[in-house]
Fold these 2 entries.
Entry 1:
Amino acid sequence: MEWPQSCGSYPALVGAPPAVLSTSLAARFPNGADVSLEVTLDKAGRVVRVTSNAAAALDTTVAAWAKSATYTHPGAICPEAPGQTTVRFDETFLAAASGVVGIPGTVSGVSFDDVDRKYRPGSCDDSNSDDHTTFEVQRVFAGHVAGVPVALVVLRCEYTPSGFNAADVLFAVDGGRARQLGVLGTTDCFATGCAIPSGEWIYTNFHDGRLYADVWDEAKKCNPKADWVSTIYTIAAGKLKALSVTRHHRAGVTPTCTESYI
């Protein structure tokens, strides 16, 4: 839809609860469910209709989540705005045990929507690249490890048009402050070719005071028995500690060996 120039910007999703699956749905979709949504809003920004490509079993969950979200809408300040319009976006629904956080990405009083540049993957700096560089916090997970509140933040630095870097950074959060504990994994994709699994490249689970992280390993992308690394973490003396590390292939995820070009 074309907006009059005076309208400023398109409507967008600006707030939402965690996109989580019930226990029964999480068992049915162990690798999460990627959903493309179209949310129709009226002139005041209220949800009129929700459509998606979700499996039938997810219809009720997806619709309820979309209706509980909040959206910006230029209709409130733009007289020329149409009576209704549609916001289109993708969302991944994950098990509640993953600790996935909603929008905004705030954990224990710490907002991770604007992470300090020093934590950003790759060079991620407009001054060091001929590309147009954008940075985003893709997802935030939260839980407790050995009694310590933590946030796992998936960061992505996009270099248009050549590719991107991404990293999973774990923070301890307390008293409105965050302290980096470690990086659980990294990946990238550039114009020379890349192989990225469909869906997520990290899966998390907080259970019994431990963090279980399953991370795709690009270095082993062609090994159908060892392309994922499962690690169980605890925190001891203020430091992240791996209790066990196991290589395997994650069930339900197609092995990604052949590179695709962007």
Entry 2:
Amino acid sequence: MTDKALEKKVVDVMVKPKYIGLKYAIRPDLFVSKAYYTARKEYVKVKNKVSDSNSFQVQCYYTFDVKDTRSGEISKVQGKTIRYSHLDIDKFLDDIIGSMGVEFAAIKLETLKLEFQFVINPAGGKLTEARDYDSILNKKSVVKIINDDNNCFWYSLACCMNPNNKMVKDGRYPNTRIRLGSEICKKCNCEWNKVVPIFPHINIVEHIYNCNIYVINLNNIPILGSSVSLLHSDCLMYKSDNKNKEHYFLLYDEDAQHYHCITDIKKFLGVREFCYNCMKGFTSKTAYTNHECGGGEKKKKINYKTADKILKDLAHYLTPNFVKGSEGD
């Protein structure tokens, strides 16, 4: 299956190996190389239509179930490789094989999926290796929060929750942002202008406002136009059960411990459609309409009887809902 973002020069190819009569494999090298070159053929078909460049970068996302050969226990594995240039394909394949290896375990082939993402370098130029800090914060889909107090979390939420209020997004009108941010803080029974740990109040806000809040890692942003699920990358730092109508995205800088606001996740990721169950972007409406939604995760029920109890036992509630790229985290 191929998903193309022609304007962004990004090609995603999903490969699902099939083996007659074989259910398990203990050697990833038997199928990784073949899967890559199968995906490469699809990439070449697209590349010939949109670019004369022979230069590209590639990365791989994968997921599969493994069976412990000693206990028989089944577990899920998912991961990704770093991006490699077209000159490092042997190293790229070795990296995939090395990262997939699990001692005393056999890969269940019917569950194996490999997604290769090819990024076509512009002819006569060099593709930027990463989305740098300044370019991310200067995007139109991001409200950069500049403040001299400890309320960046509340200011970011104020921008998210008031999308039609131009003044709250404009740094020239700080009083509007302060007023709306403090109202959210007060309604959630939290303390204003207090230095707090990472993600301390998100569960409370979600409950009070019947919303879903997601936190994206500013230091690990996916490639523009990527159709890989945020759940399969390291950029998603926080996600709870998808149970509410409103969805708010925050951008978090780990180094500065500072929040910013993402006003439009589709524009931010460079995609046309976005599924909140799969946490995946799509570069075409057809791909979005025809995709198999992976939102069938089991929901954990939490008893929110009183806000006071949540505040006292906040760490307990944060633990099962903290997601960092894998189902087990």
